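Ticket #4471: structure output looks truncated?

Reporter: J.K.
Steps to reproduce: submitted the chain below (480 residues) through the standard prediction queue, then opened the result file.
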Amino acid sequence: MSEAAVICVDIGSTWTKGAIFRHDEDRFSLVKRASVTTTTDHLPDAFYGVLNQLEPKRDWSEEGRVPLYFSSSAKGGLRVAVVGLVPEMSLHIARLAAFSAGARVVASFPYRLTRSSVAEIERSQPDILLLCGGTDGGNERYVTENAQVIAASDFGGTIVYAGNNLATDAVADALANRKLVVCENLMPEYGKLNTEPVRNAIRTVFLDSIVTGKGLSEIVARFGVSPVPTPLAVFNLVQAMGEHLEDWQNFAVIDLGGATTDFYSFSEAWFPESDAIIKGIIEPKVKRTVEGDLGMRISAESAFISGGDYLRTALGDEGVLSLQDYVHRLLQNPAHLPTDPKEIEFDRHLAGACIHHALLRHAGTVEEVFTTKGPVLVQAGKDLRRIDKIIGTGGYLAACARNQQSVLIGDQMPEAAEKVPLVPQSFSYFADRDYLLPFIGCLAKDFPKQAALTAVDYLVQSGDQVQIPSPTLCKGGHFL
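Returned output as attached by the reporter:
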């Protein structure tokens, strides 16, 4: 392997993939790639299997370091439960912080923890429980009581506390016999975001505790490098592209997988000229959400249920019944690939449902609210209307690009609604045809500009400009 080359490996739930890149002056160039089935009982086996395909003549047991980066989403990835206070404030910020750290939020609870809430936490077995609530000097009662409830539970993971600083001692006393990490408040002042300390704390817990539990410590010891959660690698790449590429100031990434659909956006969340006032917080410029019920294989059944209305509109009642039979077959064999035009069309509409709902859940909304001074427009969440580029990645969307199959994005948006979704209005679609973004994302932290340039080099523009008509507010007027 050339001295100017680096190896990137991504350990996924189903496939472990690797690539060699040559490090040129201002970017990276793909030299070779390989993939093997993930060995869930011992993740390093698949890791070394990929390395042996990339460099078959090399003895990977010999001493010496190689330039290597790796990410992992295997064994459920990084699972976080969130306990906050007000749904639109501290709880919402905590979810955003967990998403931006590459986590999958498996449960979230506002206000006071109930017995059923604790039972759900124990059942879902998150790696981390993120406890927050109250501004500094504000409400202490809820976080203190919630800490006491957690202390009495059977939850065995790590607790990260990022709430009211005045409650820190009480929380620490209540959780004295638990694995506790204390960091700065997520929302020290009303409406002020402070997510970086929480992101760092989650990453530290991932490296110190979870890496060992998921079988990655052997790789860390051998190569002297630490993994990142795969979604964090992609998040870092999205941030690098937006910060270093002038033409990529308003874009989104859809990562459609077998179990989840991740949606990333880089754009300002609110524009003063929109004449809308913000409800809750102004969301961050770089945002990630992940939908655990939307996926092409492992989550196909829940995607079928969540996308029921969308699928009935697309396929009709009879078509939906046929799709249901197909989904049941997928549950028996998640590795199944479509074998005829009908199954290809089923996959296309199932993907359309996943993308449709992931987009609507990521986007903010605007509604008309009547006050004593007359009607006003109120925005909640992020305004995506200026997004002018969308990237599709993940195994299915990459295959669509290679097979020149169209992707459904933005169809079936409501023509009128009391809450209008702030979705992109006109965008170009780019495909990660070779499914390289997770690899390139591994490089984004150390080589942000080079990684950003490399990502764009390997994207393939697909189709014409996509137009999504703006819905009309039902209560009388257009949102301009």
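Triage note (M.O.): checked the attachment and the full token line is present. DSSP finds 14 helices and 23 strands in the chain.
Status: closed, working as intended.
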